[in-house]
């Protein structure tokens, strides 16, 4: 068993128009909780979402992550709300807690106009926020990407939003065991997105030996990352209380490297014709290139390297 299905799922035909129903279908069924015996099954579903449509996967993964966080804190979600997790602290931005309320601007708030609620990080506090509150204000013009356009990841300004639904104790969000389990789930989405990009170009090789060589290299890179993520998921389930940070960081780095390989080789298989006349490859590659930048490239690799020097050989 691997995380990737042998046969690719049907793609969402029009991400903008079909996202609402597709997202509702995706989040209707509860995923296995990470670290509770079927983390590989959870990541398999996340990879399938990524292989289907990366915008769908971004929003569905955020909802699934939020539900796992709430469960870990012993909190119930509000009704059938669609959730996200807004935790970015880019370039000095971020929510702050002042006088019992949230203030400030948070970047990259995926689904800002679509979600019902979000778990918002403010310093060392995590708050369950009603996104429909008029004091939660998406900032127009702050999401103009080359890919992931429909994820609607705009900046959001908080103007005195009551922080009366706090989730867990201070520092809970990053200190909990499941923090890096969620990070591995994002890597599973990247894996699925990479597989979807390979699906797009698989039939464009003809008998050209160079294109076939690129396809062989992509197949190998997919298989290696798939196997590493599956092993990491099983290791998490075998001992959920252990420190799996190094393993998850390694799996995320492998998935990021896989995506960079896909972004390099898939266009060489597609050629100009495939990228400009086929409806899928160019859009998917653009989405993939933006989404994978949740991995901070050399900065994350340097953190992994520093951690390795502190561990026993």
Automatic annotation (TrEMBL):
GO molecular function, a single term: oxidoreductase activity, acting on the CH-CH group of donors
Name recorded for this polypeptide: Acyl-CoA/acyl-ACP dehydrogenase
Instruction: Give the originating organism.
Output: Pseudonocardia broussonetiae
């Amino acid at each position: 068993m691997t995380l990737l299905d042998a046969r690719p799922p049907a793609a969402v035909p029009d991400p903008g128009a079909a996202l609402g129903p597709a997202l509702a279908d995706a989040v209707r069924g509860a995923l296995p909780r990470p670290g509770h015996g079927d983390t590989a099954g959870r990541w398999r579903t996340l990879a399938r979402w990524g292989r289907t449509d990366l915008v769908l996967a971004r929003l569905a993964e955020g909802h699934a992550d939020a539900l796992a966080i709430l469960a870990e804190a012993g909190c119930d979600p509000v009704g059938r709300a669609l959730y996200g997790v807004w935790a970015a602290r880019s370039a000095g931005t971020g929510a702050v807690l002042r006088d019992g309320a949230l203030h400030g601007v948070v970047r990259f708030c995926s689904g800002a106009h679509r979600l019902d609620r979000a778990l918002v990080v403010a310093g060392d506090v995590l708050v369950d926020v009603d996104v429909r509150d008029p004091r939660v204000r998406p900032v127009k013009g702050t999401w103009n990407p080359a890919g992931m356009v429909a994820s609607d990841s705009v900046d959001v300004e908080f103007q005195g939003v009551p922080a009366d639904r706090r989730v867990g104790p201070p520092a809970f969000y990053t200190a909990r065991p499941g923090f890096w389990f969620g990070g591995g789930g994002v890597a599973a989405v990247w894996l699925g997105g990479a597989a979807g990009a390979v699906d797009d170009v698989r039939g464009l090789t003809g008998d050209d030996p160079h294109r076939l060589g690129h396809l062989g290299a992509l197949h190998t890179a997919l298989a290696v990352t798939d196997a590493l993520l599956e092993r990491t998921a099983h290791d998490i389930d075998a001992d959920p209380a252990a420190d799996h940070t190094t393993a998850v960081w390694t799996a995320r780095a492998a998935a990021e490297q896989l995506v960079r390989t896909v972004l390099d080789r898939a266009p060489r298989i597609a050629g100009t014709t495939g990228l400009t006349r086929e409806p899928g490859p160019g859009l998917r590659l653009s989405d993939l290139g933006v989404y994978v930048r949740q991995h901070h490239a050399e900065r994350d690799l340097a953190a992994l390297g520093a951690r390795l020097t502190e561990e026993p050989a």
